[in-house]
Design brief:
By secondary structure, the chain is an alpha/beta fold. Helix content is 42%, strand content 15%. Helix 5 links the parallel strand 3 and strand 4.
């Protein structure tokens, strides 16, 4: 366990790796960042080219587009500087005292809690339970630990586990009876839209749903996210966000992305097929592969360690996300982005070679 998990390095550090290896960024095969390999769509590229950056940006059109997509009142929609930025804004509004966090979890949650001096209560998610929370047991824990806020993430990062929407909604309504609030991070919900609670959040005074508009559409450098909340709470959130938190290019790109339903449908189908094939190939190698509803897989190596594998992959210009800095995981775990079939097969072939080397090492000791 890392004693300082909020100092976790994120995936996607391609520019840093390119400088270290002395190569161009496009020569690196990045499995460490959970980005859609089939984007961005042409509609987004065209929108970026048309964006008017000679005036201050206005997010009204994007809020209206998101509201129309999910049948919401635009007053319930807040645009911000990515999900991480909106989480910081949410916690500044709520000022929680005791927060329940399910581990392992995205490192930005802890950083946000530190920023508001919140006391952290943790509950482990277990591999033998497929990293699914037992919501029936969480409610009593919340009362006993005097928790006032819960942070949840579905589909979950780094495991890919999706929580059934009906169970999640029942839990939210149950804890609301005890004045407990829930921040629900749905950064990867575009891969399983039927599990999203975005369309419900506007009528739940104790919930903020956070959605990324960049990962699914492969535009992480534009930094735009959306929060959905009960309109009075959404108003408070807007008061917390910095002036013009999202630039003109990002606003236009996000609005175009939301309107491109053909791209979204194709991307979901492609990801589902590629993820199944990749998971099968990794399982055949002896890796433990955990169920995922997103565009990445959490695996546990049959032997060896992530640090050794990551170093071995460097001459092959491949990045993977080690998981030793996630609380509750260790260096046998890797989170691997699902890319196209050729890239996934390439990594699987490299893993075969590395694992054979591990066998040789064991035999010579």
């Amino acid at each position: 366990m890392n004693p300082s998990p909020w100092l976790s390095v994120h995936g996607g550090r391609v520019f840093e790796a390119a400088r270290r290896w002395g190569v161009a960024p496009d020569q690196i095969l990045d499995f460490s960042a959970n980005l859609n390999p089939w984007g961005p769509p042409q509609s987004v590229k065209d929108a970026v080219a048309r964006a008017d950056w000679t005036r201050y940006p206005d997010d009204t059109a994007l809020r209206a587009a998101f509201a129309q997509r999910y049948n919401l009142d635009p007053a319930a929609v807040v645009v911000g500087n990515g999900v991480a930025g909106l989480l910081f804004d949410t916690l500044r509004v709520w000022r929680p005292r005791r927060v329940l966090l399910l581990e392992p979890s995205f490192a930005e949650y802890r950083r946000a809690l530190i920023a508001v001096n919140a006391c952290l209560v943790t509950k482990p998610l277990r591999a033998e339970e497929q990293f699914q929370p037992d919501f029936a047991r969480l409610a009593p824990l919340i009362r006993e630990a005097r928790v006032d806020t819960v942070i949840l993430n579905s589909p979950h990062n780094p495991t890919g586990a999706a929580y059934p929407a009906d169970r999640l909604l029942d839990f939210i309504r149950t804890v609301a009876q005890h004045s407990v609030r829930v921040a629900l991070d749905e950064s990867f919900a575009d891969y399983q839209p039927e599990s999203s609670l975005a369309y419900k959040a506007a009528n739940l005074p104790n919930v903020v749903v956070l959605r990324s508009l960049t990962k699914f559409y492969t535009m992480p450098g534009l930094r735009v996210g959306v929060a959905v909340a009960y309109p009075p709470l959404a108003r408070d959130l807007r008061r917390q966000t910095a002036a013009w938190p999202v630039g003109a290019h990002a606003l236009e790109a996000a609005r175009a992305a939301l309107g491109d339903e053909a791209f979204a449908t194709r991307a979901r189908i492609r990801n589902e097929c590629a993820r199944r094939a990749f998971a099968h190939a990794l399982d055949e190698l002896g890796c433990a592969v955990f169920p995922s509803a997103a565009n990445f897989l959490l695996i546990r190596l049959p032997r060896g360690a992530g640090a050794e594998l990551a170093r071995w992959l460097e001459p092959h210009r491949v990045l993977v996300r080690r998981c030793a800095d996630f609380v509750g995981l260790d260096d046998r775990y890797l989170r691997l982005a699902v890319r196209d079939d050729a890239a996934n097969a390439h990594l699987a072939a490299l893993l075969v070679r590395w694992l054979r080397g591990q066998d040789s090492l064991v035999l010579t000791i």
